[in-house]
Specification:
InterPro entries: VIT (IPR013694), VWF_A (IPR002035), vWFA_dom_sf (IPR036465). 25% of the residues lie in helices and 29% in strands. The chain is α+β, with helices and mostly antiparallel strands and 764 residues long. The protein folds into 4 domains: 234 residues, Sandwich (Immunoglobulin-like), CATH 2.60.40; 187 residues, Rossmann fold; 72 residues, no CATH class; 104 residues, no CATH class. β33 and β34 form a beta hairpin.
Length: 764
């Protein structure tokens, strides 16, 4: 048995697609992705298939059509139950019907029912969705094709796959049964510097001299051995921009689609002096997935660690990097949860040592993935005064109650920030992005050959550095024009984050063609103000990406309002249905329905139903679990964790202990190192060789700490993001010792280790 996206035959074998064509239209920070999937029924009977596929959590489906033979039917959005009834009626009267709906549990999984496909008939399904592009650490904007548009294949007999890789089928080399074409058109208010991809691209083709418009295509011969990822880079990327999109000509003025919509992107740059200041307060709660699937490898490349091992190394870095004076706790969860301490403890040498001992014993042994209960436990504990609560959630899975989890995080958003980390292709983007968004934090995804440590430490930097607060957005428009925000207000904004705000522009003003927006905020107690102008008469031919994302943003806010009111809030559901139908954007309460009457004739023959399972963490293979295992492995929401049956390859050999992690494990909580044999071993010396060149007046602990810093700056600069905080702690500790001969120490350390690190580089 194998989890996969797509159609499955009567023998439970996937039906390969014939071809996939994808067109991408990018406007600044957002995109519309249009895809056409072609397949055929090779059965001898008519076929009903259930086709389940994942989408990015921030995406919204906005068009769906199906073509059978030469006839195309375009789906319309209707209230969900009404659409289901129409689908059932059509099938029972022998008509062909297509139904596309969002999963009730999670907004990033869609279910497409393809009904009554005659034997030997070809069908194509076209699907458009809109999405915001994720910002990367290097300021690039990332678009990744969902697995269904780019299924993964590897040659038979190769072992490059692992239980963690997404949707991998084994095929004879060079015989992937279909082709993929992808072309993208990019336009931006700022010039496009470059477009990169993990797959070969044809040359970037600029369409104007300002370089604000360009096209690019995937080179022929895509190998289907990886996810397709596009990275876009713009000049002046930190400058705020406003893009105004023209109304839909057929829509009624005054309605969302009948008015222009403006999108404001905010991606503030943080000055260096702000970035060098750090808080020493906070309650840091590290919530780590210990379900069975965490025993799988983090990626399929050489030297890969298992996920729980990578989480242990990451916790070592986090614990060593925390500031003195803060509080912390670690909670492991699976079907149940376990806390290291009954409540958060003050960070000290004693509590750090105790926690590290428990980290070393952490295993992936807690069954399924159940996040709701540990979160309820955390939120039931009172917050500590003057210690802002910062929650770090690390998981590789998905849950059956995503919306309930997001509602809980939102309800408690005033008392904490939530940073989330999704490991591997199986992590639900709706869950990972959703908890960070509702918790005012930041989401990171660890996929492919990514390492977990730099991404988690980057988020710790956001948690320790000042954030942008007191954000206000004021729209300045001429008389007769009004602006209605479609996005909820932003409470907090971190370094490296980007916010997109949508607003509807209603009315007209005689003669005036310009409006402006003023954005004010406070950063490290300093006021900042940006003003930018935009045209009230936008270009006519830019599509409706911004409108649809504005509609999606408003729909998501209203859906949450409806859930918070327990479904009792009058008129909210009706408003969502109206907005969804008007904009053509999917919602929790609507579905796409298309019915095709086949020349007035019924499709003959008994109907076969094919249920394709929702993709979870897709194993390469797993045994059928023994009877009774299902009940035992299910969490309270019925989400089984079958990792014990997964074919999770063990690491080929236990990797030697990383010297960097060895050095870090020796550091004391307040920042110093002790002169000992273990330190000398990391430095590649004997204890005597290390002790001998110490300048006479200098204390042994100061000397050991200077040597550790010189070694880090001399040999480990490529991993600076991982050790920068513990190095800052070490420097503060040395400065507190008021050492007279620091320069002499650094010089002697350089001579001993064969480095040339300047005292100023160390921050001394």
């Amino acid at each position: 048995m194998m989890n996969c996206c797509g159609l499955i035959t009567v023998k439970k074998e996937p039906v390969p697609l014939k071809s996939i064509a994808v067109e991408v239209s990018v406007q600044g920070h957002v995109a519309t992705v249009s895809s056409t999937l072609q397949y055929e029924n090779q059965e001898e009977s008519p076929l009903e298939a259930i086709f389940v596929f994942p989408l990015p959590g921030e995406a919204a489906v906005c068009r769906f059509s199906a073509k059978i033979g030469q006839t195309e039917v375009v789906a319309e959005v209707q209230e969900k139950q009404k659409a289901r009834d129409q689908y059932d009626d059509a099938l029972s009267s022998g008509q062909q019907a297509f139904l596309l709906e969002e999963s009730d549990e999670s907004s990033d999984v869609f279910k497409l029912s393809v009904g009554s496909l005659p034997p030997g008939e070809k069908a194509s399904v076209s699907l458009d969705y809109v999405t915001e592009l994720a910002v990367q650490a290097d300021d690039g904007l990332r678009l990744c094709l969902p697995a269904v548009l780019n299924p993964r294949y590897q040659p038979q007999g190769s072992d490059s796959g692992s239980a963690g890789s997404a949707l991998v089928s084994s095929v004879p080399a060079g015989s992937v049964p279909y082709s993929l074409s992808l072309s993208a058109r990019v336009s931006s208010p700022h010039p496009i510097s470059r477009v990169e991809s993990n797959c070969p691209l044809d040359t970037l083709n600029y369409l104007n001299t300002e370089k604000t418009q360009a096209t690019v295509s995937l080179a022929a011969g895509h190998q289907f051995d990886r996810d397709v990822e596009l990275l876009l880079y713009y000049q002046d990327t930190h400058q705020p921009t406003a893009i105004v999109e023209a109304a839909q000509t057929s829509a009624k003025p005054g309605s969302l689609m009948g008015d222009p919509v403006v999108m404001l992107s905010m991606y503030p740059e943080f000055p260096n002096d702000v970035m060098s200041s750090m808080t020493s307060h906070g309650e840091f709660l590290f919530v780590v997935d210990r379900s069975g699937s965490m025993s799988c490898l983090i990626h399929s490349g050489p030297g890969a660690q298992d996920r729980i091992g990578s989480a242990r190394d990451t916790l070592l870095l986090l614990l060593k990097s925390l500031p003195m004076g803060c509080y912390f706790n670690i909670i492991g969860f699976g079907s149940s949860y376990e806390s290291f301490f009954p409540k958060s403890v003050e960070y000290s040498q004693k509590t750090m040592d105790e926690a590290l001992q428990k980290v070393n014993g952490m295993r992936a042994d807690l069954g399924g993935t159940e996040i709701l209960q540990p979160l309820k436990h955390i939120y039931s504990q009172p917050c500590l005064s003057d210690q802002p609560r910062q929650l770090f959630l690390i998981t590789d899975g998905e849950v059956g109650n995503t919306k309930e989890v997001l509602d809980l995080v939102k309800t408690n958003a005033g008392s904490h920030r939530c940073f989330s980390f999704g490991i591997g292709e199986g992590a639900s983007s709706a869950l990972i992005s959703g908890v960070a968004k509702q918790g005012g934090g930041h989401a990171q995804f660890i996929t492919g050959q990514d390492r977990m440590q730099p991404k988690v430490m980057q988020s710790l930097r956001f948690a320790l550095h000042p954030a942008v607060v007191d954000i206000s957005v004021k729209w300045n428009v001429p008389k007769g024009v009004s602006v209605t925000p479609l996005s909820p207000p932003i409470r907090v904004h971190f370094q490296g984050q980007r916010a997109l705000l949508y607003a509807q522009v209603t009315g007209e003003s005689l003669g005036a063609t310009k409006g402006s927006v003023t954005v004010k905020y406070s950063l490290a107690k300093q006021p900042v103000e940006n003003q930018l102008s935009f045209s009230l008469k936008p270009a006519e031919d830019t599509g409706l990406t911004v409108h649809r994302l504005g509609a999606r943003t408003l729909i998501r806010s209203l859906e949450m309002e409806e859930r918070e009111g327990g479904g009792e809030k009058k008129g909210v559901k009706e408003k969502v249905v109206e907005l969804s139908v008007q904009s053509g954007v999917s919602s929790a309460f609507t579905a796409f329905i298309a019915v095709h009457k086949v020349d007035g004739e019924s499709v003959q023959g008994p109907m076969l139903r094919r249920q394709v399972p929702t993709p979870t963490i897709p194993p390469l293979s797993y045994e059928v679990p023994p009877q009774g295992a299902m009940a035992a492995d299910c969490g309270p929401f019925g989400m089984a964790d079958f990792s014990k049956y997964f074919d999770c390859p063990a690491p080929a050999s236990i990797p030697a202990k990383d010297p960097l992690l060895q050095l870090i494990s020796l550091q004391k909580a307040f920042g110093s190192w002790v002169l000992e044999a273990a330190l000398a071993e990391v430095l590649g010396k004997t204890e005597e060789e290390v002790a001998k060149p110490k300048p006479a007046p200098v204390d042994q602990e100061v000397w050991a700490t200077v040597l550790a810093l010189v070694w880090l700056y001399g040999f480990k600069m490529e991993a600076q993001e991982e050790w920068q905080f513990l190095a800052m702690k070490a420097v503060s500790w040395i400065q507190a010792q008021k050492v007279a001969s620091v320069s002499e120490c650094v010089q002697a350390g350089n001579t001993l280790l064969g480095c040339q690190v300047q005292k100023d580089t160390l921050g001394l």
